[in-house]
Amino acid sequence: MEKMFKISLLGFIVCGSQLSLANDFWSDDRQWLLGDWGGERTQLESNGYKFIAAITSEAATNLDGGYNKNHTFENAAQLALGVNFDLNKIAGWENTTAALMLTKRDGNALTMSRIKDPRSSALGNNQEIYGRGKIWRLTQAWIKTESNDHKVQFKIGRMGMSEDFNASHCEFQNLLLCGGQLGKSIGSIWYNWPVSVWAANVKYQFSPDWTISTGVYEVNPDNAKAKSDSDGFNLDMNNVEGAMIPVELTWKPKLEFFNGLAGEYKLGALYSTAEAKDIKNAGEIHEGKYSFWLNAQQKLTQKENDAKRGLYVSVNAAFNDKATTTVESTQQLALWYKGAFDSRPNDTIGLGFANYVVNKRAREYQTAVNESRGYDHYQAFATDYIPVQHGELNVELNYSYQWSPAVMLRPNLQYVYQPAGVKEVDNAWVAGLTMRVNF
C-alpha cells in the first residue's frame, strides 16, 4: 500500500504540474498549484466549502558529527487532505464551523539513523514532520460554535491538543522550534498533529484583551498506535486511562502596548488524571501528572507601512512533573524577519535556539541500571548499556523562499549539541530543506 501511495502521489503531482503549466504556473501570486479549477474552487469557498490539499517534505543530511558519521540523506513527508465547512453558509447555523482532515506520513528521520545513539530515547529531531507512524490518520473531525458577541467559543470532536492549547508558530524544520512544545516532552499523553483524540474545549473572552480557555481531552494510548491504517481511524474509547485537563490564559494587548505592534502572551497548566509511573523508582505509581507552560510572541519592528513585514520574536517554555517525566523542561527562543528584502517581501529569515533539560531523577535511574549491569562509564558497543542523558541544544538558521502562496522552499542549517543528551556523542551539523506545496 505504501508503494501504491508513492506512485499515486507522484502521478498526482506530475499531472497537476502539467495542468498548472497551462495556467500561469510560474505566477508569484498563484494561490494553489492546481489553480482555481476554472473558478469552481472560489465558488465552493464562497458557498462554505474550503478544500485543503498540501504536501510537506523535509529532507536532511549529516555534514559532521553525530553517533554515526557515515553521510546519508533522509526525507520525511506528509500529505494532508481536508475540508473546512462554514455551516452558516451551508446550513444557516450562525457562527458555526467544522473541519475534517486526513493525513498520511512517510519517510525516515536523520536523527534516528545517524545523529543520536540508537540506544537512547530521542529528544529532538531535525525533521519535525517525522513521527507517529507511516499511516493514514483522521487528524481532525470537529465542530465549533461561537456566541453572537464572539466572546464564548465551544469546540467538540476529534482534535490535536496543540490546536487550542500551548500553540506556537512554526517557522523552522527542527522539532522543538516548530509548534507546541508539550508534545515533544510529554508525548506519551499529549498528542500534537497528526494524532487526534476525543475532546471538548471552551474559550471565554472576558475582556477585549484577555481570554481564558479550558477543556477535557481523553488520555488513551490507542490513539498513538501506528501499526496499520486502522489505528489512525480508531474512534473507540475502550482503553481510556483518564482525562487531560488544560487551562490557558491569553493576553493580546492593545496595539498601544508595543508601539502599535501585535503580540500574544499565554500562560497555561494541565493536569492528567491518568496513572503515571515514577521516573526513578520502578513500580511506584502516581495518581496523575502535571505541566506548566509559557508562550509569548511579539512583533518587534515593522518595515515602513507594511504590517506583514518586520522582525518577530517568540519565547516558549514548558515545565513538567519531575516525578513522572524524563524531560524536565524545554526552552525556546526564535527570531524571524519577514520581508527583509524589498524584492522578496514574503520571504523570511529565521534563527532559533531550543533546549531540552533531562530530569536528574531520570539520569540517576539510567546510572543505577548501568551499574547493576557492571558498567561505570560509557559503553560504545554494549547493547544492554543505557546512555546517560543530560540536555540537548538545537540551533537552526534558515531562509524561507516563498515562491508563491502555493510553494515554499526553506533551506536550513542546524547544529545539535549533545544529541539525545548524551555527552559522549559528537555534536552534529545538519543541512536541511523543507518544501511545502498547496495544491
From TrEMBL:
Residues making up the signal peptide according to the UniProt record: 1-22
The keyword Glycoprotein belongs to this UniProt entry's keyword annotation: no
Organism of origin: Acinetobacter rudis CIP 110305
Name of the protein this chain belongs to: Porin
One GO BP annotation of this record: carbohydrate transport
One GO location term (cellular component): membrane
Gene3D superfamilies linked: Carbohydrate-selective porin OprB (2.40.160.180)
GO molecular function, one term: porin activity
Pfam families on file: OprB
Family: Belongs to the OprB family.
Sorted UniProt keywords: Signal
